[in-house]
Amino acid sequence: MKYTRPKVHRPINTVTLDVGKPPSSRGETWKTFTILYHSFEQLSTERDSHGIISPIFSCNGTWWHLTVFPCGGCEAPDENVSIYLHNVSKGSATASFEIQILDLNGVVILKSDRNKCFFGVEDGANPNLGVGWDDFMKRSDILDPSKNILDSNGTLRVKVQMKEEPKTAFVPPNSFANMMKALFLDEASADICFEVTMPAEEEGSDTAASDDLFHAHCLILDTCAPMLAALCGSSENGEMAIATITDVSPKIFRHLLCHVYGGSVPKDDLKAHAKAIIDASNKYSIVNLKLEAEEAYVDSTEITIDNVMDNLLYADAMNLALLKEVAIDFLADNGEELLTSVSFNDLPGHVVKDMLVATTRKKKEAVPETAYDYETCTYCAHGLSLMSVNDLRRMMYETDYDADGSREAMIEALSK
């Protein structure tokens, strides 16, 4: 419902808000606000222009008010009372609430369903700051003396119940990750320095000369990137150990080292330099970055008849199980056309099994129930062989195995 703030006519008498916490059969806590609309019969009945706005009240850190139109809002039939709950705080909120009409003895005469609604602006759409009902109740029923809704002063009682969400104390997250990132390229504390020389084919790039030196820490590299640490050897007389790298560009090496220190490669760079990052991370065994770059390459590369064999051979050479699966699935889906347009002379013999797996998996709707043996608490090779690379990698991660490996290696590790 699109909400346009109405012209306001406030009642002269003071509005009283009663707050309590009634018990709930579902074990939930609901905050209650009882709003008294005095001299209801005398409130303006001019259609769609006079909304009676309550004082604001607070629940779950958000401020609210209730608006009542004694003779209906813009969409309400004549002689119907409209009621809307509005979020008057800055920003958006979600609330579970219920609105009730009480008689003069406090008995509920009419109530809404309990609603969980979003109040705010979402995806650039029109503001949805108010939620309610155009025809909540007939005005004539409220004024009917036989229904005992208004007291002798003509006071209408409207109750708003809002669910209170559990409050938790704010605890700052563990700062270790930020501390690690702060050590990235910190020359003052570093004991290793990499001199990275631009490869000949990349000469003339706009990489600054100062980017050719990268300071690091032996302890961190020993733990997170031992192959990089091994390049530096040991320093003598407390001097900084020096290592020279000539097969990776400074820009790619910076991404590599940043990842080691807990940083992330921007998505655009990951896609634009996916192959270079794969090559470097594979060479220096930075497994997670290699898998991230592989995913970026798969997402940004369209497999076609012209490039499927190149991608398959590259995936096989670099042990890129996901890219290999995508390429093989393409072969399985387009076999008839590929038979006359693609040469299979350079295809390694072991890829034939992957082709059979892809063909068989497409015939299966799900992994066989025998994939897991509950007696031995192990996975059987038959069930695992039909799983996707993504599922195999997830299982490797969950069982604390290295997720960088061929399909066969992952299946062998999981079935032990």
Describe the structure.
Helix 10 crosses helix 12 (351-363). Strands 1, 2, 7, 8, 9 and 11 form a 6-stranded antiparallel beta sheet that branches. Strands 3, 4, 5, 6 and 10 form a 5-stranded antiparallel beta sheet that branches. A 3-stranded mixed beta sheet has the order 13-12-14. The protein folds into 4 domains: 17-163, Apoptosis, Tumor Necrosis Factor Receptor Associated Protein 2, Chain A, CATH 2.60.210.10; 172-300, Potassium Channel Kv1.1, Chain A (2-Layer Sandwich), CATH 3.30.710; 302-348, no CATH class; 364-416, no CATH class. Strand 15 (372-373) and strand 16 (378-379) form a beta hairpin. It has helices spanning 139-143, 176-182, 218-224, 226-232, 250-260, 267-272, 274-283, 287-300, 308-318, 321-333, 335-338, 351-363, 381-384, 389-398, 407-414, and strands spanning 17-20, 30-37, 52-53, 57-59, 62-69, 80-87, 93-102, 108-111, 115-119, 130-138, 156-163, 192-196, 213-216, 241-245, 372-373, 378-379. It is α+β, with helices and mostly antiparallel strands and 416 residues long. The chain has 15 helices and 16 strands. The chain starts with 16 loop residues before the first strand and ends with a helix.
Give a brief description.
This protein has 416 residues and is an alpha+beta fold. The protein has 15 helices and 16 strands.
